[in-house]
Amino acid sequence: MALKKPLVVINGQVAQISSSDILDAQIQEVESVSLENEQGSTIVIGNIVYPSSTGKVKLAKANDQSTKNYIGLVTDTSVADAAQAAIQTEGVVEATTTQWDAVAGTTGGLTSGSVYYLSASDAGEITEAAPEGSFEYVSQAGIAISSTELQLLHQQDVRLASLGEVSLLRTTGASTFDPTIIRDGGISPTWYMGDGNSYTADSVSHDYASAGDYEVSWLLSPTTKSTLTDIWVQNDNLTEFTSDAGWTSLTSIRLNDNAGLTSFVTHSTWPIEDFRLYETGITSITLQPNWTGITNCDLHNTNISDLAIPGGWTSLEKLYLSRCYNLTTITVPNDLNSIVTFSVFDCDLGATPIDNVLIALDSGGSTNGSSKYQDNPGSADGSRSGAAATAKSNLVSKGWVITN
Asked: What is the distance between the alpha carbons of residues 85 and 81, in angstroms, rounded to a whole number?
């Protein structure tokens, strides 16, 4: 196709511009797309929208990762649900002052020179005040160049830090997320489920619409986190769990049946009595010496290879380490004088660590207990050292039932 010279008006007549003349004109790039409205209600000019998983659009909102990725503003005056909407993605969006007032909370239109942000409270709207709440996103939608014109910006969003204290969990799959959180004082934290849903309750149950990787944010205020007493997050496909040293009343934690959970940080500030991470993918765990009130510790069927039981756990009654198939090393103190159950069967323990367990249990002085250490490479009686054989005999005489 041959290039054409632009038409201009010279002395009232339309003519092609001369090759020696310079064209003085304002050129503006405007890009738009047409997508179906999936909001379930009418959307209007100036509404800011994001693409849904079905390739349609819904009203954007800056309070969740799944709804904050907007693509542009509606330029049609009004678009019914399921109808096609014109979405401007670049350039300057024009609307009347009344139309801007409806979507920006203004009076008399936009304020020239002001930056407008995606709203975290009103879906599809923009606001002159940047979001300030916990887990809200600061996303610049545009800058006003007049009371009726908004130059789109698409600035990078920033997620605000928690104003309180948060525990981050990550869960995968489309199954129900159903952690039971029990605590004194009725704390009722806020749960942000990572798909646009949130709850304020001690316990939540939530069904994800589709399989995926969801970041669940669990918000506690600084004043209430210290009263948290019990955490149960069981069988919920967890892959991450962020703990907090400020849980200074935490006596019980159970993260059972979460095979994707491979690490967990403990804190000495917790007054733990009941600690259960069984049937997880945990590869290493630190048991804190300060947990002197602990009575039950259950780590069976985890991926730990070595474990140190701290001295000073004189209240410990039950320890379960069975089916820790990688467990080759265990350190046991001599002061477990309350222990009645010590289970380490079906692990990978050799003769020496089993000898040390028997000697430590005998030294602790507890009576009428039970210990199972069968199905380990060092289980056989013939593998016992002289000291360990004596310790086993002593335990039996104290009423212990020992299975090897």
From this structure: 9
